[in-house]
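Issue: ligand-bound run for phosphoenolpyruvate - logging full I/O for the record.

Environment: standard queue, default settings, no custom constraints.

Inputs:
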Amino acid sequence: MRKNIVAGNWKMNKTLQEGIALAKELNEILAGEKANCDVVICTPFIHLASVTALVDPAKMAVGAENCADKESGAYTGEVSAAMVASTGAKYVILGHSERRAYYGETVAMLEEKVKLALANGLTPIFCVGEVLDERDNNKQNEVVAAQMASVFSLSAADFSKIVLAYEPVWAIGTGKTATPAQAQEMHAFIRSIVAEKYGKEIADDCSILYGGSCKPSNARELFVNPDVDGGLIGGAALKASDFKGIIDAFN
Ligand code: PEP
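Outputs:
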């Protein structure tokens, strides 16, 4: 059975002190009851060691927002998958549209990053999604299928360790959300191409998260769809009560 997951992406927000305060608040909010989904918070690199040390791993896992496409060495400013894993983090977001658009991350670079993440025991949350112009021209399936090439070179055993996230770029941080029908349609498409490549069992077990202006008021109508297995949350992950409101959509 695939897992339902709510994962936060803090992006380049929160100083270390603010991040620690948010992680503590979330830890306290989640202490009482058992969430009906796995919870992950993905933080800037510098927060990872402090945040992993303070959260209850039974309630929440921690992840990075990126890692290098090289193993180690003379790559000034980069952070390797092994370094991320050494902080106690368990996940890493890869292929976020902001990384693709602003830092030129290509299908080939992302293929390397995914392999290095897996080799270091991290679970990649691999993001795909089309821009508005591509949707307006009904190219979304083609675009997403091409982006999936970064993970379609994995063995079946490795593919079954990753999490996917569909994030239509036009919905990220814009307040514009995909309709539940648009989300379901794309998630079903992604699952169908995973099934073609790896078979139905692996496709059925693959968690596919939705991302793009997800908030407490729309999370339930998105997550109720059969192929939507949770969310990757940006803005609403920066406030503990909003993030909890999204987690509660699974209650
Ligand atoms: C994201 O960047 O992964 C995201 C989904 O952002 P937001 O929720 O702010 O749209």
